[in-house]
Each structure stands twice: as C-alpha cells, then as structure tokens.
Amino acid sequence: MSAGLDTAPLFEISNLYASTADGIPILRGIDLVVNQGEVHAIMGPNGSGKSTLAAVLLGSPEYLVTRGSVSFRGDDITDWPTDVRGKAGIFLAFQYPMEIAGVSVINFLRQALSARKGIDLSVLELRLAIMEWMDRLGMDPAFADRYVNEGFSGGEKKRNEILQMAILEPEVAILDETDSGLDIDALEVVANGVAAVHRERPGLGVLAITHYQRLLRHLRPDIVHILIDGRIVEKGGMEIAVSLEREGYEAFL
User: Fold this and answer.
1) Does residue 4 register a pLDDT over 50?
2) Where are the domains of the chain?
3) What pLDDT is stored for residue 205 in this prediction?
4) What does pLDDT average to over the chain?
5) Exposure string over 217-246, b if 16+ CB within 10 A, otherwise e
6) What is the DSSP string of 145-170?
7) What pTM, to 2 d.p., does this model score?
C-alpha cells in the first residue's frame, strides 16, 4: 500500500493515453481527480472517448493504456485486472447491461457480494436486504428471481445496475450513460436512486458519463468535465452543462 494513502485522492487519472487493441488512439492525456464524496460528470459528443474511458478505468482488455496511470486510494492500479478492481471497490454501471442467462438477480448479487466483501449471506438474508432498494427503485420484487437482465426493459436493466451499486457498496461508481434510452419517469427513478445511494454513503465518489443535462439536474455534480476527441477541454460547475445545452459542443472546440 502507498505511504500517502491517508492523504491520497480517492481516484486519480494522470495523463492517461489509451488506444484500441489494434493501435487506434482514443484517449489523449486525461487528467481527473475524484476525492471522497465528490460527484463528477463527463460530457461529450459521440465518439469523444467517454465509454472508452469507462472501460479503461475498469481494465477492459479491449483497450491498451499507452501512457499515464490510474490510481485508487494512492495505489497505482493501471495494471490491475478487472476483477481485482471490482473487489477493491470500483463499480461500473454499463450503458448496455448484459443479459446473463441461467443466473438469477439474487444469486448474482450473492456471489458478487461474497467476492467484494467476503460476506456469505443466505438467499433469504440477501432477499431481505434488497427488498427496500427494489421498492425505492420501482422494481417488482419478482425480478429478484429472474435471470439477470433477461427480458428486462431498458429502464429495468438500468434500475438493476443501481440495485447492484446499492448492495455492493463500492468506493467509486462509474456510470456509463446510465440515462441513455430512459424516458423521463424512468430517468427520475434511476437518478434519484443514485442520489439516494450517495446520501447513504457520503464518501462514495461518482463519475457520471452522460450526454444530457437532465441527469445532472438530479445528481448535482461538483465538477463537470467536457471531453472532446479524447481530451478534457473544459471543466467547471453546473454552468458548463447549462451552457452546453444552450450552445452545443461547438462552443468548446
């Protein structure tokens, strides 16, 4: 462990460059620091590198880090595999959550919780633990026994991602366009669910990747970053998101 652990940022991205596995450069020097309890937003047009950044931060083998580093609580995790990052407390809510046939939501959560925290709850104990969150997220309790995301609507898949975040209690949550494909009502439920998790775990760091200001109205980020062509070109408060919605990305080119 690093000597400066107590004073280190929760999550730090330093001069990060990354390319696809076949050498196409995408990220071109990302610098970003998330301290405990902070909510950050990353906004950018299609093809700017937002989802690539999320994948790189979780160690996806589809991308190669060619320069720079990612640190978590003072430790360089640039070379850590995905499962080790997840166990350490780094969580990714996917833009397009995968279906897992044959594995129920409750058994998935039971295994994930065991891997994350070494807690071996019975199915009954876990069912009692998740009922409150399912209610808060507008999820039918019967979903606990359905296969993960199989036959779920887009909104139900996103609710399931936030349920996982609530139960697994990560230290850092990366939300990759969690608002995409949601109608206004589903967006409000999901966004309020994220905000509720953050209230209950005030030290949680959140990095929300989004196209739209509508999610940020609920999350109220501390810092908004504009990502264009693999670089952060501007950062500031909510006023940047407001300006972006009014003027478009051309104002930041």
Assistant:
1) no
2) 11-97+151-252
3) 96
4) 89
5) ebbebebbbbbbebebeebeebebbebbee
6) GSEETTT--HHHHHHHHHHHHHHH--
7) 0.90
What is the rounded CA–CA span in Å between residue 188 and residue 23?
Answer: 39
Q: Of 234, 237, 236, 238, give the one whose Cα is nearest residue 251.
A: 234
* Alpha-carbon gap, residue 39 to 205, rounded angstroms: 6
pLDDT given for residue 2 in this prediction: 43
CB 43 within 8 A of CB 227: yes
Could you give the angle at which helices 123-136 and 105-117 cross, rounded to 10 degrees?
110
Cβ atoms of residues 29 and 229 within 8 Å: no
- Indicate if the pLDDT at residue 236 is higher than 50: yes
Q: Which of 96, 245, 100 is nearest to 181 (CA)?
A: 96
Q: Give the pLDDT mean for 228-239.
A: 94
How large is the average pLDDT for residues 209-237? 90
Distance CA 109, CA 147 (A): 12
**Environment class of 56 (CB within 10 Å of its CB; exposed 0-12, middle 13-18, buried 19+):** buried
- CA 248 to CA 237: how far, in whole Å? 16
CATH architecture of 11-97+151-252: 3-Layer(aba) Sandwich (3.40)
pLDDT digits (tens, 9 = 90+) for 138-167: 888 999 999 999 988 888 888 899 999 999
Tokens of 247: 């003027």
Length in residues, the chain: 253
Query: pLDDT-derived band of residue 6, with 50, 70 and 90 as boundaries?
Result: low
